[in-house]
Write a structure and sequence with these properties.
11 strands; alpha+beta; 5-stranded mixed β-sheet; Cytochrome Bc1 Complex, Chain A, domain 1; 6-stranded mixed β-sheet
Length: 409
């Protein structure tokens, strides 16, 4: 994978990989998200993601949506705790049309008051829907438990109370102070020459004034392990255990990713699945995840289980963690774990849309993106001793937090 790079004079960075095929993918990603909000404006980053499609200086909402979708493309956006992204998939001849639209909605949105009021109601409905789904809600509540009192712990959607009181001036202030050209990346994976892509981007983005944000993220510290049990009116109980983990630039990041995959990744033969689901039938869903952030990270295990099996499932999960802490992987086990994650990475790389979004995120924070071959080399260099060391640091029992949504049915 040969990535090509360029930076506009206003600081906007560009990364591209030329591929064959009729469909191309392009996105504009900004290095700001819900963790960059003030407490009383929680939810504003996500609300902005909704509102940028609701009107610009030269387009009404239906013109924005029709610009790409009328030619069979797909326009979308998302907000995370650290990023906001507008992206599209389209037939390759529509690169210019798509990039012109990105520039328009990102820099010329007008946020009409009527649309602000309407979209606030939509987001409140989204929050209510989310609160009705404990299997999703527990992930955010668990991060709130880990990052208690810090902006990383807040829900991306915000609270109903905050959304209700957000005003147009709050939206404009957030954009002015957080949306910096020096914190933006345009990523592309498609059948277009780099020189032609740069020419199109220059036409629509080069005239945008350079901006630099003075905002600095507050690093997270002072983690205190907790155990909380909440009653929920649901059929299944939901539980999570985990710990804070490595940031995206930590040298141990890839080792923890390998361990997480071995423990409870997507494969049905993961250790947690084989023990809790296959051997005992205690849970239908059991998985482990690792999410790195810019200054910290989250490791967690999620289990959806009948109430009678919650404690048994947690005991089995902790047993698997203890094995990784006490028993060094043998040569065959380590080789198999590496083969599995390398295969999964290769398969995920078959999605050019996922690749485009992935390289945008990496290039926001690093000067270059590693090729799949470089990543494989790094995986191959992981030793059994590395796995033992990381397991003992992250899975230390006294450092684990637990959150249980206990079914009351």
């Amino acid at each position: 994978m040969n990535y090509q790079y360029h930076t506009l004079k206003n600081g906007i960075k560009i990364i591209h990989r030329e591929i064959g095929g009729a469909v191309s993918h392009c996105g504009l990603m900004v290095n700001t998200g819900s963790r960059d909000e003030l407490e009383n404006e929680n939810g504003v980053a996500h609300l902005i993601e909704h509102l940028i499609f609701k009107g610009t200086n030269k387009r009404k909402a239906h013109h924005i949506l029709s610009r790409i979708e009328n030619v069979g493309g797909e326009l979308n956006a998302f907000t995370t705790k650290e990023e906001t992204c507008i992206y599209a998939s389209f037939l390759t001849p529509y690169y210019a049309q798509s990039l012109e639209l990105f520039a328009d909605v990102a820099f010329n949105s007008t946020f009409p008051q009527k649309e602000v009021d309407k979209e606030k109601d939509v987001v409140i409905d989204e929050i209510n829907s989310y609160n009705d789904s404990p299997s999703e809600l527990i992930f955010d509540d668990f991060e709130d438990l880990l990052f208690s009192g810090h902006s990383l712990g807040r829900n991306i959607l915000g609270s109903i109370e905050n959304i209700d009181r957000l005003a147009r001036k709050d939206i404009l202030r957030f954009i002015k102070t957080r949306y910096s050209t020096e914190e933006m990346v345009i990523a592309s994976v498609g059948q277009i020459k780099f020189e032609e892509l740069i020419s199109i981007i220059e036409k629509h983005f080069a005239g945008i004034a350079q901006s630099r944000s003075n905002f600095t993220r507050t690093p997270f510290s002072n983690y205190i392990p907790k155990k909380i049990i909440k009653s929920k009116n649901s059929y299944l109980s939901h539980c999570m255990i985990g710990n804070t983990a490595y940031s995206r630039i930590d040298k141990n990041k890839l080792t923890l990713l390998l361990i997480t995959n071995l423990l409870g990744g997507p494969a049905l033969n993961s250790r947690l699945s084989m023990s809790i689901r296959e051997k005992y039938g205690y849970a239908y869903t059991v998985e482990s995840m690792y999410q790195p952030y810019s200054d910290t990270g989250v490791f967690n295990i999620y289990i959806g289980s009948d109430s009678d099996h919650v404690e048994k499932s947690l005991t089995l999960a902790k047993k698997e963690l203890n094995k990784l802490m006490k028993n060094e992987l043998g040569t065959v086990q380590l080789h198999r774990a590496k083969r599995q994650i390398i295969g999964q990475l290769a398969i995920s790389g078959e999605s050019f849309l996922n690749e485009m979004l992935g390289i945008a995120k990496v290039y926001l924070h690093k000067p270059r993106v590693k090729s799949i071959n470089e990543i494989i080399e790094n995986i191959e260099s992981i030793t059994a001793e590395n796995i033992l060391e990381v397991s003992n640091e992250i899975f230390e029992p006294k450092q684990l937090s637990t959150l249980i949504f206990k079914a009351q049915n």
